[in-house]
Amino acid sequence: MVSWLFDRVVFATDFSQNAEEASAVLPLLPRLGEVTLLHVIGPGEEGRPWFAGRSLRSPEETAEQALSTLAERYQEAGVRARHRTVRSPDGDIPAAVLAAVREEEATAVVVGAQGYGLIGTLLLGSVSTGVLEEAVGVHVVIARDGAETQDPGTTPVLCPVAFGRPSREAAALLPALGAREVVLLHVLKNDHGVEEERAAEGELARLKAHLESCGTEVRTLLRTGRASDEIVRVARDAGAGLIVIPRLGRTDYIRNILIGSTALAVAKKAPCSVLVLARPPDLSEEVRELAPEEFPLAEEVWTGYHGQTADPATDRIFGLFVEGTLAAVARCRRHPDGLEVDGVFTPMEMRGRGYARKVTEALVRACGGEDLYMHSTLDLVGFYGGYGFVSIPESGLPPSIRARFSFAIGDLRGANVQPMMRPAGGGSS
């Protein structure tokens, strides 16, 4: 059974005025399940302080009383609430919050935007940023004050869309969030073309039609500029009570990052509460040969790899797409006297996921019916050996392929290169 966004919610509070105002957002979360009120006690708050010969309450006792009072208030409002206090001896408050989130098996965590704590320590602000950046598997609500203007049933909900899977999933949630009015916003780059603008208008129209069929009132907007700035500006102008934004953008999925720059900037600067949706646990991958009209995509990937260019007359290019974005490529080029494998490349930020192996496997399956030759870097000889390539002397290369490294004047090892060959139909793949 798939959990709802707010089945189990952890609300991290420091008892500041800001946190008190943010706490008013909790009851507005639709279909709210159980809430765990959490306070983290940091270093320097040890023991039971004394004043004028009397023993004062310990930090735990102070926090427990404040949490109990808040829990009773929620329960009176019909919210199932309990509370807990945890310590963070090393002062890593975000890590302590997220550890509690995992222990509670929470589906979402709610933090305020900023504030000073009950005992004078800075909790929310830098901590909310830390929680947001690291909370990969749960939804995050950055709650801001002014709860009376943040009910999705009475104020507009702004949903920025980039037309990839993250945006589609975010838009699909809007009716379930109880949003009566939705603003769908797409931000174009300053150098966008006419065709890109028309495509964006068409995508917005399709999303609007779907949401309206669910009974939601929808406005669509196209803006140009820096995405995070435009989102914040539109939220303010539209009087939005909530921004719903995916943790990762359309192309962020394929990068080794925890949160996209747009989502992070919006969460920090928004004039209202922000719901940052968790990264989905599964990503779609597709490995296939590129059509000639897709070769510019490969050239864009090769920007970080000697600026390679593609030639439809001689090249077959194989790519791995993650959520529709090209993440790795490999090329088989036909020379007059043989086939050469090169251009096997995955950008640095996308490495460590086996993408190069998958595109190499696809290339060998498709082209391995003939002898394949390559100039491998020395550190990748073992990698290509797994696909049936064996080291050969430079003289074993076909002349036109050998000529590509003529600048080495016979010293290929000095150029960090080893000629290799895979016999037709041979080796492993």
TrEMBL record:
Question: Residue limits of the N-acetyltransferase domain?
Answer: 274-408
The protein's matches in CDD domains, at most eight in alphabetical order, are given as: USP-like
Question: Which Gene Ontology MF annotations are present?
Answer: acyltransferase activity, transferring groups other than amino-acyl groups
A Pfam family recorded for this sequence: Acetyltransf_1
- Kindly give the PANTHER family that the UniProt entry links to this protein: STRESS RESPONSE PROTEIN NHAX, UNIVERSAL STRESS PROTEIN UP12
Which family would the database say this protein is a member of? Belongs to the universal stress protein A family.
* Name under which the protein is recorded: GNAT family N-acetyltransferase
- Where does this protein come from, organism-wise? Methanofollis aquaemaris
